[in-house]
Amino acid sequence: MVLTLFVVNGMLSWEDYTSGSVPKEQANWFLQTVATFITSCSVEQIRLAPDKFISLCKRFKDQVLQLQAPMQGIAPMRTAIRKLQSSAEHLTSLHSDFLLLCIVAKCYKAGLSIMEDDIFEVDQPKDFFLYCYYGGILNIGQKRFRKALEYLHHAITAPMTVLNTVAVEAYKKYILVSLIHTGQVLPFPKYTSSVAQRSLKTYAQAYIDLANSYATGKISEVEKCLETHVDKFKLDVNLGLVKQVVLSLYKRNIQRLTQTYLTLSLQDIASTVQLETSKQAELHVLQMIHGGEIFASINQKDGMVSFHEDPEQYKTSEMIEHIDSSIRRIMLLSKKLSAVDEHISCDAAYLSKVGRERPRFEIDEFDTVPQKYMTM
Amino acid sequence: MKQFSHIENPLSRIKDNLNSTGLSHLKPVSLSPSQHRKASLSHIKAQAAMDEADGLAEMIDAPCSNGVDQKRPKAIMSGEHLDVEAYASLYSGRTKILRLIFIAEHCGNPVTQIEAVRMAYDELKKGENTQLLREVAEKINGNLGPEYGVDYAWIHSVERRAEQRKEKLENELSGYKTNMIKESIRMGYNDFGDFHYARGLLGDAFKNYVRTRDYCTTSKHIIQMCLNVILVSIETGQFMHVTNYVNKAEQTPELQDPIITAKLKCAAGLAHLEAKKYKPAARKFLETGPELGNNYTEVIAPQDVATYGGLCALACFDRTELKNKVIDNINFRNFLELVPEVRELIHDFYASRYASCLEYLENLKPNLLLDIHLYDHVETLYEQIRHKAIIQYTLPFISVDLRTMASAFKTTVAGLEKELEALITDNQIQARIDSHNKILYARHADQRNATFQRVLQTGVEFDRDVRAMLLRANLVKHEYIQRNSRKN
């Protein structure tokens, strides 16, 4: 099997020699061979030569994209990832390529199956950024904004020494998704790298203006901002998202009304939220009721909307199941956290660093750091 | 002049009082109400005082008994149009002049303006402040005739005298300094400070007063120094210094004199008021002892203590504090007697008679806007009082009809709805509005549901944060390894 791998690689390098466009039949044959190879190769042997395997898969992906048939590449890539991963929590270089294929093929569900597993082991930090970015885009496509926010958040808070473009693009989307999901953009958390904190804002000025105008709560402000920056948004292929942001502002304003009113006429809703007619207000409210974002009932005869409390009483057995499983999940996570903590406290590098910083001549303090680590 | 005829005719003052308080139906004299109105000097009192409010609480301040004694400065901070002369007679010294100038600048009524400016001029002539006299003369602009112009002869003589005095003081001071007698040096600087203050040079006055600090030997000296500095600081508006020196004076041992304690409390209250800290300001004013009397007229009048203290207390205190510190406060009652309207409005607020309370407030407003210390706080204080009234109104009820509430607060239902919306969003009222039926329903958050929600939310956040953290830790570890491997 390993032999086959080298043979195929030889073929690839020959192709690189010839370069230029490969005739279609040859390309198809190539794709088929690789696909069969991936499905039938053995896992241990792959792990012996991961680099070759990865470069093979990358070439495979390029070919698939060139042929504009990304669907073909999805299944083989997924198998490839599963075989390459040492554990379900491992991020390989192939993850980002796979997600790219899914996005191009608009096959979001396939991508989601890979992303179900939480990643904790990362080989190459570079792959990580692309993975998070694509993951964010996939989730946005599925309208899972909470997850998208998580991925994009990983991308911008990852430790980095130099700013990269993926992080910048991720930040732009992060602002938009943050506005849609939570209505505000939180400041950078403490653990963001200083590079990111300093420079990300300069590249995303239009988005920050949008966020500021969103904060005023007035539709007119936001639309004005949109008009001024519409070209930039188009350039970044973010216009669709921006339109969703505007929509979310209406929703948020209506939600705020539920906090102060029990019943309100459609006309008043329209005027408070700056909609044109009460018909539009009715439409919005209807959409929100369907989407489960508010609990209300519309009385068309009087043109009144009555807002209700959240009917969730937290008494059903489903709710208990939900809470129970959450507790269990968090306990597992907790255990993992303590395991990692223990692991690090035994790590040589960490001990040497800590030992160096401690004062040496504490006679009455029990010295738990062995001497040999303090001399490093 | 016409403005003074009411002093000659004390009886009409009674009638005017009654007129303005809507009790004209009482008919103390044989004149009918309509004749009252014609006969009264209403062209001065341009402001309409109280409306013919039905729900008005009775103002039993017995205007009859005081109308005779026009010297007693009683109905100053009242709903009537400001009586400039009576107002000015409450104060003395520089603050009197400043207040008169302030009134002239901010009052819309030209008659009052002229009156105020004229009195300021007269007062200035008695002193030595030529600069201020020049400014006031400019303001008069010849409207009062030639004897109120810029009197150059007087200015020259005053300035010459001032120069001579200054030289004399300087010589004396240098003499004392060579003799090194502490007490004389202190008095020398003090006299210098007084001199500068009289001339209107407040900066120099301040410096000289502060210099006496090094030569103070007894606590009396220290207190005198502090009081002087406080006076100058209030006039220049540097209330930081006021607070510092009040503290300094209060920490002096042997501070026995209750008048001085009262003075210090007033000064501290003023400082807090300017700093917009209404609660401490209220506390200070309420602690002022009745011994203050008319001893601090160069800064503040007892009526002011009552007004400032009363309004700040209303805006900031909760019901218990209001009852204990204001209504049951015997000392403060003496002050409140001087401004019966403030007393009434506090009682109305406490008894939930909001309509009349707010009405008193509205009537007091124009005169309060002419007060040199209070004018920029009037709006804030009024807003706070109004909000408190609304909150207090809704507190005991499960449901409130917005229409009755609107009439109680003399506003429209729509306006009231907007105010309530703001308060609910601000979380000051726990309620919901039924806009269809115009009812306000009290709403108490369900603790149990809210707790469940928070728990689930916390779980989600913990999950997310820990996973992110583990991921980041991993990334850092790999970079560290990479860096290490590169090093090796």
UniProtKB/TrEMBL annotation, chain A:
This is COP9 signalosome complex subunit 3. One of its GO terms (cellular component) is cytoplasm. Keywords: Cytoplasm, Nucleus, Signal, Signalosome. Its main location: cytoplasm. It is found in: Cytoplasm; Nucleus. GO terms for biological process: positive regulation of G2/M transition of mitotic cell cycle; protein deneddylation; ubiquitin-dependent protein catabolic process. Gene3D superfamilies: 1.25.40.570. Residues 1-20 form the signal peptide. Pfam families: COP9_hel_rpt, PCI. Residues 144-312 form the PCI domain. Belongs to the CSN3 family. The keyword Signal applies.
